[in-house]
Recover the amino acids of this structure.
């Protein structure tokens, strides 16, 4: 009975703010360690941007979003990676990367805040841990996964990194579920509002994303595995009045 009870205790978790129940067979500390390992793997292969102003913007806006989450226990880190892909991610524990290719779409601090708040929301809601629990751990088992990571097995590292949310960096794009995407949009609006960015900037960002997708003939990476921009914009419009309750301009 005790082992089963321990599993159930680990499995029962609730997403902040939304209150949604979720399946998590992984402790938060183990999830954060996986996030840190994956982040180090990404940075080892990446080329960090030498644009001091853009890097400062990412770090400045990122710090405000991080503060708004209230997760002072996270070891937050923000890096700007030189890469044409229009993408960003946040791994468990607050390890964030933004690709230079998304900056022409974000345009300003508020647009960048919308992207960062959305990605940070995935980590705060432990969406990566959910995917690992539901997919990888069910298939090969927790022990095998941990062994593979400790040995830096390329296939294991690649799969876990993708499941935790940094898929584009390892050549494997795994879409979040629609419920997770909507949840990240909702939480992201609240976090950016708390950080002093008007939540309407998120709607404007997605309108620009939609325009970028039409111009290219294919959507940017940040949009390609997500619900349609039109659906997202409608949802965000409906949530803006609630998010405004948290908004205090700085």
């Amino acid at each position: 009975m005790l082992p089963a009870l321990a599993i159930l205790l680990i499995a029962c978790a609730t997403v902040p703010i939304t209150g949604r129940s979720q399946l998590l067979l992984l402790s938060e500390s183990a999830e954060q360690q996986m996030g840190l390992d994956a982040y180090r793997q990404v940075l080892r292969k990446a080329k960090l941007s030498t644009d001091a102003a853009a890097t400062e913007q990412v770090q400045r806006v990122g710090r405000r979003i991080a503060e708004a989450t209230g997760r002072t226990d996270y070891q937050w880190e923000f890096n700007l990676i030189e890469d044409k892909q229009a993408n960003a991610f946040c791994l468990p524990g607050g390890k964030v990367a933004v690709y230079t290719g998304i900056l022409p779409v974000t345009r300003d601090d508020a647009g960048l805040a919308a992207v960062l708040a959305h990605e940070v929301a995935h980590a705060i809601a432990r969406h990566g841990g959910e995917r690992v629990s539901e997919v990888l751990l069910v298939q090969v088992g927790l022990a095998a996964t941990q062994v593979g990571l400790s040995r830096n097995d390329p296939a294991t590292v690649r799969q876990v990194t993708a499941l935790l949310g940094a898929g584009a960096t390892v050549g494997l794009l795994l879409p979040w579920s629609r419920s997770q995407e909507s949840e990240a949009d909702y939480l992201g609006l609240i976090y950016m509002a708390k950080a002093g960015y008007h939540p309407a900037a998120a709607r404007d960002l997605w309108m620009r994303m939609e325009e970028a997708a039409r111009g290219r003939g294919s959507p940017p990476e940040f949009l390609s595995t997500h619900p349609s921009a039109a659906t997202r914009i409608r949802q965000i419009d409906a949530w803006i009045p609630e998010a405004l309750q948290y908004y205090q301009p700085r």
